């Protein structure tokens, strides 16, 4: 059975660096037989978790916020692998990415979150050449904590420095690593 790979992008730049790397992940996954779907979070209506705890009530059918997460939730549950591609904004992930992450709360209480057992791929782009100075390490650390908490496996992290939209294309290493990560997630 073909692996299902769900890719979400948290950049508002349509031809931006995280989108380009996410495209390489998708290409690597498709070339190796996976079914890939990609969504740009900036184009979706995703509200913040409002901590209503409706998802925690007995016989709850999950999150009750009526927005585009209702379309993404079943895709997250069905996916074998989930790839999150974000720019570094203010030494962490973009707000679009963080809104999406907060809504994982609606996927079930610890230790039974529906992301348990999934394979995760992380893609990060940032302007400063140094991943420590850029804040990329904060974001990477956050992803490690999140996916360790829900019992998912981070299968790969691809990160690279670029400032203007599209600049990452001339940085061979993350481009190749992104393709390889896609291939690995498809296997
Ligand atoms: C609001 C904002 C905040 C940013 N904050 C950081 C930062 O903290 N560290 C950094 O290295 N780059 C920062 N950048 C630069 C972006 O991370 C960089 O341009 C990245 O390549 C953007 O990815 P994208 O093309 O996928 O949108 C910031 C850019 C914006 C617009």
Outline the fold blueprint.
Layout: E1 4-9, H1 17-31, E2 35-40, H2 69-78, E3 81-89, E4 92-93, H3 95-102, E5 119-126, H4 131-134, H5 136-150, E6 153-161, H6 172-186
Helix pairs in contact: 1-6
Flavin mononucleotide binds near residues 88, 91 and 125.
Report what the structure shows:
- By secondary structure, the protein is α/β, with parallel strands linked by helices.
- 36% of the residues lie in helices and 21% in strands.
- It has helices at residues 17-31, 69-78, 95-102, 131-134, 136-150, 172-186; strands at residues 4-9, 35-40, 81-89, 92-93, 119-126, 153-161.
- Strands 1, 2, 3, 4, 5 and 6 form a six-stranded mixed β-sheet that branches.
- The protein binds flavin mononucleotide.
- Flavin mononucleotide binds at residues 11, 13, 16-19, 87-91, 125-128, 134-135, 162-163, 165.
- Flavin mononucleotide binds next to helix 1, strand 3 and strand 5.
**What hetero molecules are in the model?**
flavin mononucleotide
Quaternary organization: single chain
Our estimate of the beta-strand percent is 15-25%
Q: Unreliable segments (pLDDT under 50, ≥5 consecutive)? A: none
Topology order in helix (H) and strand (E) letters: EHEHEEHEHHEH
Q: Shape from CA axes?
A: globular
Output mean pLDDT: 98
Structural class: alpha/beta
Distance between the termini: 10 Å
Q: How would you characterize the largest beta sheet? A: 6 strands, mixed
How much helix, percentage-wise, in residues? 25-40%
**Rg on CA atoms, Å:** 16 Å
Number of strands: 6
């Amino acid at each position: 059975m073909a692996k299902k790979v769900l890719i979400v992008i948290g950049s508002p730049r349509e031809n931006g660096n995280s989108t380009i790397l996410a495209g390489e992940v998708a290409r690597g996954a498709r070339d190796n037989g996976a079914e890939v779907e990609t969504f740009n979070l900036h184009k979706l209506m995703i509200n913040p978790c409002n901590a209503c705890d409706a998802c925690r009530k007995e016989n709850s059918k999950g999150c009750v916020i009526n927005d585009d997460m209702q379309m993404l939730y079943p895709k997250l549950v069905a996916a074998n692998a989930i790839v999150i591609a974000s720019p570094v904004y203010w030494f962490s992930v973009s707000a679009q990415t963080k809104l999406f992450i907060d809504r994982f709360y609606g996927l079930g209480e610890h230790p039974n979150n529906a992301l348990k057992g999934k394979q995760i791929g992380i893609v990060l782009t940032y302007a400063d050449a140094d991943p420590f100075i850029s804040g990329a390490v904060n974001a990477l650390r956050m992803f490690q904590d999140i996916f360790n908490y829900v019992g998912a496996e981070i299968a790969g992290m691809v990160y690279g420095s670029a400032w203007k939209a599209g600049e990452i294309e001339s940085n061979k290493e993350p481009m190749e690593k992104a393709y390889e990560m896609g291939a690995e997630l498809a296997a």
